[in-house]
Amino acid sequence: MNFRLSMFGIRKADIVGPDHDKDIPPRGLVKVLRDPKCYLQTLSLPENQIDDEKTKGLLLGLIKNETVEVLDLSHNKISDEGAKALATLLIKQSREQGEGRRILELNLTDNLVGVGGGKALGRALMLNNTLENLSLRLNRLTDEGGAPIIAGLKNNSSLKKLNLSNNELGCESTEALSDTLKANGTLEELHLTGNLIGEEGGKVLLDAARGNQSLTLLDVRAGGVTQQDIDEINSILKQRVDLKKRALEAEKEKILREETGYAVKDWRDRFYLGE
């Protein structure tokens, strides 16, 4: 089950109910999220003027929820305090035991997240083992907030997609990324368009792309990287994608042969011969 509300300017009362305080049980959306019968898997609230206070109110429900896997809070007004609250949620979910679902995708595109929020999310990535997709495109991280997020991936084994485009990231973040990609074996897609990488940073990323084995997409357009280095990065990653495809096909062939005694080609021949 999915829920989407966009461009309506959600009120705090819609989230926690009117006149909410610590002595009154939450109502509104929080009540729905806390309901044991809630089967909501996607919660999408873009373009709703959600700020830090409303984000914290929303977490009153999310922290008790075990079904939401996709949380879209893009194009809102969430800054550092709201990002810190979301980081706390990610850490709490990673520490909890049980079979409840966890947030797999968090979209914070086009908000106001800065240095403090970046540092908090970096700490969360060090501890979280379930989040697979994080977008912080079009925020205000700068190197001081972006480098900690990148460093948080060194020991992370779940995140597959990270979007840090248009965040004024420069040398410090590039160096952190070089170290991270040597240690991380999970990240598959990294988007860094519209940052301040520069020619030297591009060469650092090219070297990092050569040494990493999991990355299949590294987007560094509009960041001052030379076209030659962009082309070489793309060529390295394309070869890696092709190798993975061939390895997957070989594994499928092996499984089919073990289970049936026939290879894929044998099955095709038998099909065309009408056997």
Please specify the SSE layout and strand pairing.
Elements: E1 2-4, H1 12-16, H2 28-34, E2 42-44, H3 52-62, E3 70-72, H4 80-95, E4 105-107, H5 115-127, E5 133-135, H6 142-151, E6 161-163, H7 171-183, E7 189-191, H8 198-211, E8 217-219, H9 227-260, H10 264-272
Parallel strand pairs: 1-2, 2-3, 3-4, 4-5, 5-6, 6-7, 7-8
Helix pairs in contact: 2-3, 3-4, 4-5, 5-6, 6-7, 7-8, 8-9
Query: Which regions contain 5 or more consecutive residues with pLDDT less than 50?
Result: 270-275
In percent terms, what proportion of residues is strand?
A: 5-15%
Strand order of the largest sheet: 1-2-3-4-5-6-7-8
Outline: globular
Order of helices and strands: EHHEHEHEHEHEHEHEHH
How many β-strand stretches?
A: 8
Main sheet characteristics: 8 strands, parallel
Mean pLDDT: 88
Rg measurement, Å: 22 Å
The rounded distance between the terminal residues' Cα atoms is 44 Å
By secondary-structure content and strand pairing, the structural class works out as alpha/beta
Helix content: 40-55%
How many DSSP H or I helices?
10
Features:
eight-stranded parallel beta sheet, globular, alpha/beta, 8 strands, 9% strand, disordered C terminus, 275 residues, 10 helices
